[in-house]
Amino acid sequence: MKTIGLIGGMSWESTAVYYRLINEAVRRQRGGLHSAEIALRSLDFTRVVDLQKAGRWDDAGILLGEAGAGLARSGAACVLICTNTMHLVAAPVAAMSGVPLIDIIDETALALRADGRRRPLLLATRYTMEHGFYAERMARHGIEVLVPAAQDRGAVHDIIFDELCQGQVRDASRARYLGIIEAARAQGIDSVILGCTEISLLIDPATLPLPGYDSTAIHADAAVRFALADVMEQAA
């Protein structure tokens, strides 16, 4: 089994979900007391948020890249950035880490394409919805990403940072998200991407009025496939 390297803490609420999902998947596939080989570098989220707000993305890339390089030195065979937003700096992180970076955007796009989805609504932080890196990466896979209206984007962003990243899950915020999804149906969306790793704490994709794609779960599954590829091949 290969060791999975996680760059986490952004926020730790969703990093804990990664840890659980990865270990549950390994247990399902290997049985017994098997669990995942994981190396975790958990960052102080305030440092990252300060860089985001200041637009210091180059510095953020170095911070995460150094974390990825440390994971590789500790034996990680791959690296995951456990947040959608910070995939804005995925290229320098991959270069500094020196091991394969499993990209959450690519993996989510592959899941959408496998189901024939082409026009998803993206719910995420303002950075992810507005910066352009996410939509551009999705477009490489033939997927046109739609985002909510400006006021709704603000609400989605604020709920993530002010509530979910701080462990607060509110029914009113869930209703707000569902209302945003309903409004977007008139634009012809065919699916919904939970494009922030905390949103699955609030929304169960299985309960949505359209097919939902939880980027956290998709990313975790991709990590397990990578880690167990040699093991499963030997077993076969």
Query: How would you sum up the global shape?
Result: globular
Tally of DSSP helical segments = 10
Tell me the structural class: mainly alpha
**What number is the mean pLDDT?**
96
| Percent in strands | 5-15%
Task: State the helicity in percent bands.
Answer: 40-55%
Major sheet:
3 strands, parallel
Name the helix and strand elements from N-terminus to C-terminus, one letter apiece.
EHEHHEHHEHHHHEEH
Low-confidence stretches: none
Going across the biggest sheet, name each strand in turn.
2-1-3
Number of strands: 6
Describe this structure in words.
The protein is 53% helix and 11% strand. It has helices at 12-30, 45-54, 57-73, 90-97, 104-114, 126-130, 133-139, 150-162, 171-185, 215-235, and strands at 4-8, 38-42, 78-81, 120-123, 191-194, 212-214. Strands 2-1-3 form a three-stranded parallel sheet, with helices on both faces. Helix 1 runs parallel beside helix 10 (215-235) and helix 2 (45-54) runs antiparallel to helix 3 (57-73).
